[in-house]
Amino acid sequence: MKKEYSTIPPSMANMQTYGFSWMDFVSAIPSPLFVVTSFKANGKPNACLQSWACFNGSEKGFYAILSSVNKAGHMYKSVKDTGVCVLNFPSADVYDRCLDTIDNNQWEADEITASGLTVESATTVNAPRIKECFLSLECRYLWEREITEGNSHVLMCLEVTNICMDETHLDESVQGRYGASGYLYNVHYPVNPETYNGKSHDYVAVLKKLRDMGEY
Ligand SMILES: Cc1cc2nc3c(=O)[nH]c(=O)nc-3n(C[C@H](O)[C@H](O)[C@H](O)COP(=O)(O)O)c2cc1C
Predict the structure, then answer these.
(1) Which residues constitute the domain of residue 180?
(2) 130: CATH
(3) Which atom of ligand 1 is nearest to the CA of 36?
(4) Contact of 154 with 71, CB cutoff 8 Å
């Protein structure tokens, strides 16, 4: 039997949603995890963990649409100031250090080094890259939109100018391309609206191929 939810379920009426919609938590759609790096106006590397995004290309280029960028954060300001950034995709072994960038968010900090990660130069843009990440997308800022007027977050479109990828992830025969430890996905507070009792947590997931499970 399918259930439908177009208004907030009674069990979630008092849920702390941290600015998200209750529909985020009922749908719990996984989104890819990556760290956006750029230079702050003081020249220090900025790092911002992000996950609400999609990626798509056309004959004109390849684009990253970051769908929920906080206008109050360092990342938004740095990308607007410099016009460029890098999207760095971690595997599971470095995820805890990527999470640490949230605590090391001080204006004066080199947020990459302070989190135990290594700064390297990007090839096509003036932004830092994270050496430990298996994939880095170098990007330039194209445009932004508020999804609804007056929103504290914006949808931001970036054009990818360069892909830097660890060769173990290029070769399908080495670890099945994605491997057991990355890409990583953010699963945001999945809630059963029928039984929600105030407890939920988010978690990180990886991809498993249906082919490896004997299908397709
Ligand atoms: C799993 C996870 C996903 C996140 N995704 C986003 C996101 O998509 N957009 C955003 O603005 N902040 C996101 N955040 C919050 C930022 O990482 C956090 O506020 C960060 O300190 C902001 O850095 P900044 O000041 O350099 O912008 C996420 C945090 C976590 C733990």
Answers:
(1) 32-186
(2) 2.30.110.10
(3) 26
(4) yes
